[in-house]
Design goal:
With 230 residues, this protein is of the alpha+beta class. The protein is 18% helix and 37% strand. The protein is globular. The N and C termini lie far apart (44 Å).
Length: 230
């Protein structure tokens, strides 16, 4: 069942976000089902799509296909507030790759000029690639949506200087928000090894790994306060 018809498994925050911003557009009716595809094996020869790829890719199409929503994002640059709205489209494309452990497939993702391709791995993770390795972002699409719902909610808070406008851009890597993290509560539904959220009633901190092929991937810290003078 499509996520907009069945919000089970999402937090109240993410449900409210999808009810407010989520829409469904049926735009892939002519898509060839995965079980009819031949896909490129690592050896270079085409093979019939394996069952793990069929199940994950068709499951994505059934659960999220046609979903679109917009995320508000506010950052502070010097004394200026910059506000953007980014649209995300959940539409499969034709890109499929055999990974060292499983497979990944492409989908539209963020509707903006971007150096990355958005992927889903057959183990469920959301990630990106610059053309090289699969770079994990979230443990699952649900975790990604939860993170997007939080980011949109933070547009009503006050960003601290140093927040990056895009996940592949450099931002703050240390400072007082990180030092205060021990006093904050984790937000597990939006967090994973590469993207972790913490909050209190007055402060929210996000610690994530930048979208880059650098190894190790450098951490980036974003922070928002409810009080403009905090």
């Amino acid at each position: 069942m499509h996520v907009l018809d069945d919000l089970d498994g999402l937090s109240p925050r993410a449900r409210a976000f999808l009810r407010r911003s989520g829409e469904r557009h049926q735009r892939d009716a002519d898509r060839l089902p995965t079980d009819y595809l031949q896909v490129p094996h690592r050896s270079g020869r085409p093979v019939i799509a394996p069952m793990e790829l069929i199940v994950r890719r068709e499951g994505f199409a059934q659960r999220f296909g046609g979903l679109t929503y917009s995320i508000r994002h506010r950052v502070r640059s010097n004394a200026d507030l910059l506000e953007t709205v980014r649209r995300w489209d959940f539409l499969l494309d034709d890109w499929i790759r055999h990974e060292p452990n499983g497979w990944s497939f492409g989908w539209a993702g963020q509707h903006v000029s971007s150096p990355v391709r958005h992927l889903v791995h057959t183990d469920g993770r959301f990630g990106v690639t610059f053309g090289g390795p699969f770079l994990e972002v979230s443990p699952s699409i649900n975790h990604m949506i939860e993170s997007h719902a939080l980011l949109d909610e933070m547009a009503d808070w006050h960003p601290l200087p140093g927040n990056a406008l895009e996940p592949w851009a450099a931002g703050r890597t240390n400072g007082s928000p990180l030092e205060r993290r021990a006093t904050l509560r984790p937000i597990p539904e939006a967090s994973g090894p590469c993207d972790r959220w913490f909050h209190s009633d007055t402060l929210t901190v996000r610690q994530s790994l930048r979208w880059t092929e650098d190894h190790p991937r450098p951490p980036t810290i974003e922070a928002w306060t409810r009080n403009a003078k905090a």
